[in-house]
Backbone:
């Protein structure tokens, strides 16, 4: 009976996320048209900021759990690309306008700094500072880009949007909590849960935000949301976590995961350069994600 309760709560939470994501996209598109906001601003600085994942890595760093902190950032990026872009690409046509070159440079710089910090733990502190400076830079670039369109919004519209975002976070937390209860009841392997189940459910919001943006004819909003989430995780969250950890010794598991992470990133750059996705690209994201799951679980069992 207890298991049924948590299963029902999980299902209700997932359905709630689906409809809330749909409503949020509708609201944002209405504001974009009404106030002439851009997909760059909305995607990177509104939808791309992921507090849920921030807490996981930063709290792990506070508790001196470097592998959990850094591993979460590596794994979440891999799963984000698989869930947010891989799945939609298998069933939908994803075509979008050219991503601004400045963001490709910022993304590449963030990935380089993150790779150096994770692989060479001795320079983690210095790299973390530079990553935080990069965070400030990309926020300034995005705000400057929006200066041609004064930031304004009716107080009731702003309040409604905040309520919807808060509800989205609440439903996401309920889904994670119900998942954690199910793992305890059924004694599911922790690695399997953490990498596959938890990694999937924590990216449910991004999946439906991307899907609904494509359906509404604004795929750029979905793309910039993914760009924003990766930048947020690899600059701000990584920077804060790295400062808290100072230094650490990398592990075989983290290093192998980092290799798949880099392959995923290059595939993402390829997708952006083509300005459209395909079933092959979508399948490649999913295959890399599967390899990541199998590799980490295999190393854990050994």
Residues:
């Amino acid at each position: 009976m207890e298991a049924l309760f948590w299963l029902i709560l999980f299902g209700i939470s997932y359905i709630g996320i689906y409809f809330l994501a749909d409503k949020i996209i509708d609201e944002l598109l209405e504001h974009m048209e009404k106030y002439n906001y851009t997909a760059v601003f909305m995607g990177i600085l509104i939808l791309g900021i992921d507090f849920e994942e921030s807490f996981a890595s930063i709290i792990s760093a506070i508790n001196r759990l470097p592998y959990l902190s850094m591993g979460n950032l590596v794994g979440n990026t891999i799963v984000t690309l698989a869930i947010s872009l891989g799945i939609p690409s298998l069933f939908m046509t994803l075509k979008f306008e050219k991503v601004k070159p400045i963001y490709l440079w910022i993304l590449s710089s963030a990935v380089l700094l993150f790779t150096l910090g994770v692989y060479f733990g001795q320079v983690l502190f210095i790299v973390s500072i530079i990553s935080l400076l990069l965070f400030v830079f990309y926020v300034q670039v995005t705000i400057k880009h929006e200066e041609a369109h004064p930031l304004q919004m009716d107080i009731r519209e702003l309040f409604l949007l905040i309520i919807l975002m808060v509800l989205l976070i609440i439903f996401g937390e309920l889904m994670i909590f119900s998942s954690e209860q199910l793992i305890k009841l059924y004694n599911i392997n922790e690695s399997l849960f953490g990498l596959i189940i938890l990694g999937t459910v924590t990216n449910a919001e991004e999946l439906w935000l991307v899907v609904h943006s494509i359906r509404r004819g604004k795929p750029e909003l979905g793309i910039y949301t993914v760009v924003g989430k990766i930048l947020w995780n690899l600059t701000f969250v990584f920077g804060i976590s790295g400062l808290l950890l100072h230094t650490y010794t990398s592990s075989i598991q983290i290093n192998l995961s980092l290799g798949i992470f880099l392959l995923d990133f290059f595939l993402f750059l390829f997708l952006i350069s083509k300005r459209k996705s395909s079933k092959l690209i979508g399948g490649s994201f999913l295959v890399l994600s599967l390899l990541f799951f199998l590799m980490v679980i295999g190393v854990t069992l050994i």
Remarks:
- The chain has one domain: 39-150+200-301.
- The radius of gyration is 19 Å.
- The first helix runs from residue 2 to 35.
- The chain has a mean pLDDT of 80.
